[in-house]
Amino acid sequence: MLAVKTNNPTTLTEEIQIKIREVMEQYPAGKSKSALLPVLHIVQDENAGWLSVEAMEKVAELMGLRPIEVYEVATFYSMYNLKPVGKFLLEVCRTGPCAIMKGEWLIDYLKKKLKIDIGETTVDGVFTLKTVECLGACGYAPMMQIGEYYYEHLNSEEKVDKLLEDFRMKGFNKN
Amino acid sequence: MGKKILLEHIDKPGIKSYEVYRQNGGYNSVEKALKEMKPSDIVEEVKKSGLRGRGGAGFPAGMKWSFIDKKSGNPRYLVCNADESEPGTFKDRYLMEFIPHLLIEGMITSSIALESNLGFIYIRGEYKWIKKILEQAISEARAAGWLGHNILGTGYSLELVVHPGAGAYICGEETALLESLEGKRGNPRIKPPFPAVKGLYGNPTVVNNVETIATVPWIINNGGDAYAKIGIGRSTGTKLISACGNINKPGVYEIELGLPVEEFLNSDEYCGGVHNGKMLKAVVAGGSSVPILPAELFLKTKKGESRLMSYESLSDGGFESGTMLGSGGFIVYDEDQCIVRNTWNFSRFYHHESCGQCSPCREGTGWMEKVLHNLESGHGKMSDIDLLWDIQKKIDGNTICPLGDAAAWPVASAIRHFREEFEWHIEYTHEAQKRNYGLLKSTKEFFAASVV
After folding, report:
1. Is residue A86 very low, low, confident or very high in pLDDT (cuts 50, 70, 90)?
2. Closest Cα to residue B207, out of B75, B55, B328, B74?
3. Reported pTM
4. A88-172 carries CATH number 3.40.30.10
């Protein structure tokens, strides 16, 4: 679902625009559309972790694509967030091998602990809870991804509490 | 200890770095391939090795290479499939994270064979830190003269690009991967034409799994015949197995093909047995798509022979009583696990991951998920089992790509081997409704036990 229009045009720094051009130049002449997935990742990271309609239109403009070519891709891949997310996105694996190793418990515990449902953000805007399909960490279950890294063996309340606390502290320190 | 090829040097401190990797013979295959061999010789060695695609399908790699169109004069591409997302599979991640130069060396040597000057590593978007590791390895290799223009003064040039996906299981299917690499939705293409003729940008392309490509340097250094002597029968060489589920020692293991499954499961060198002293209930031997087998059929074939970790032995008996080696995603279920709940979970996965092009898959996976959810939660009826059988049969073989088959097989095998468990959910609806996460018994004990 193509969700949110902010009515504020997305601006990107010169530095980010150079980075985008560099990515586009990695592909053969005339094939720079190939850069669409990596460019959307860059823009999402710059845009507080999600892609607004305006952000996608900016990508289309920079890459010389029609907006629909960007929308159809952004809506296909699950890593692109089409509505605002909290400071930290908790992407918890729900697939079979995790599920049989307390993965379902982990999801329930996070819901209870953060007092939010899947897809929601805590009132302080720090955490968004998202369930994802197999992340390739089956031997280290249960687990979740936060930002760049995986956090594995999250099989007790103590471990989960500590992890959330660490991120909450970092989250507040950043501002 | 079995033969180690891919993980031979994994325990050497600093093997992740270029210097240590090079000190241990790294990049020798590139030198040999460029200076002593013709591209066709390299293809010939890989053919002789009997190496089969390690992504799951098991198609002979050398043969796949020999199909690439070199006559048209169009640019040729090697694309590494690092979109590892088959549930239960986490072996490519291990290789790329801990010995990244092995893949880079394999990419270079394989590109020489295919006479390709541009290669891509399509890595799943979630492996963000591994993308950086690979990019670092590429820049080290370039600085040392193994990549770029005029490599080793031979006139051969090659560039490698690491390309991230963005969360789509379907992009592990090679034509969906190519669509995605072109900046589009990951909708699989109708074959033929095969990528070897019309692949990336309409040009001849070979798509190989990470593990397949990482095996090439050893074959070039030691010869295809030496590789073919390892393993058993047509299952030559070694295979990485990622073991997970209810076992004592989950992790990634390199095994010589032909190892008895019982040894792999119970030996302390590998899985270390079922955890908490539990009984083995079932095994998914090669990633979520392959048929699940009950303990007795997993350990021994229907003819009563001990099963081995090989393409042939695991598929002995066909789908009636066998399974597949697949991607090497080895998932173990103990006696407390509920097969119906697991099947529902997998169906939900395939429903979520269906690209939506073919109606049997798009509609069928969602339908199976709904019926299985009803059954699992104690709201099913007896006719649902036959309905599920009917739906999976109508998906299997009727879609553009194998995702449809992959969605059908777990359902078919669960009903085939565990029908009584489905019936139990219908006969004892009240019991089914009150179980904790579907566990059959001793929930408290399971949750008290520490994992790893």
Report:
1. very high
2. B55
3. 0.95
4. yes
